[in-house]
Amino acid sequence: FCTPSFQNKPPNHLIKMGNSSQKEAAQKAFQWYLLGEYDRSKEIYDEVMLNAQKNGIKNADLHHDYALLLSNGLKKYKEASSHYLKAIEYCKDDHNKRANFCGNYAGLLRQIKEFDKSERYFKKALELNPGDIHHLSNYADLLREVGKYKESKIKFNRALSIIELAEIQNGNKRKKRSALTPTPTSSTTGFGSASGRRGRRGSGKKRASAIYKRNSALDTKMTRISVLQSNAFTKKNIGKTYSNYALLLFSMKSYDESSTLYRKSIEIDQDNQIRHYNYARLLYDTQQWNLAINHLEIALELSSNQHASSYWLYGR
Questions:
Q1: What is the pTM of this model?
Q2: Which of these, 178, 157, 172, 165, lies nearest to 226 by C-alpha position?
Q3: Are the beta carbons of 258 and 282 closer than 8 angstroms?
Q4: Which of 161, 215, 258, 283 has the lowest tally of Cβ within 10 angstroms?
């Protein structure tokens, strides 16, 4: 299942809706969607969509958000598909937003097992925005699901390169902010001295340069990644990337690399029962019985003892 990616904080982006009452109604509908009140949301959206159609309004965001409700909330995939296509058609000038719409539509197509079409739309999304970690990771996981392991590994490695680059850039920004804050220092600490900086092993800029050399497909200007300010949604995406890549490596029997990534993904989200279960599967296959049991017990506890796969493996 591919969770949608929101480019801006919803629902304050419907700026070309016509009169303010229709804009407010669309925002209210989206808020009900976020709260899980799908029927209420649809009732308002239906009215807003009807008015938009009568007035000849072609609003890409409106169709996209309605598609989210129809696909993720109400599971009406065919109807959602038509609205995704309209959103993509109406969004011509904003490449990042169009990329986001293509990627979310690709996620829907993957859910209904239209894998070839899903792959085409993931490619379109990444042509428009190569640095979108969310859609790049989902595309890599799609390739894993259809058995294209080598291609999947290439995409996952690119995703990890973007994550590493973003963390370097954010680390440098934090250092700059820290350097601008005057703090009392003694002459023996060498705070901010040239010799102190030279003494460190490799600068952030050199490391960033090395990453770009490893992956020439990455373009600085196109890399839209927001690990900035500890963005929770992005952290969630990073954890999902680690977990999905670990699943690929497990399938390829690269157990050590898979184990490392599973631990990283669990560190980011310790309450994810699926990650504990998948890691337990790896530990079981590598005969680390006690540790496997520990993670199975955690998975069962997090699911209130409802996770059937954990019970099955626990019984073995």
A1: 0.76
A2: 165
A3: yes
A4: 215
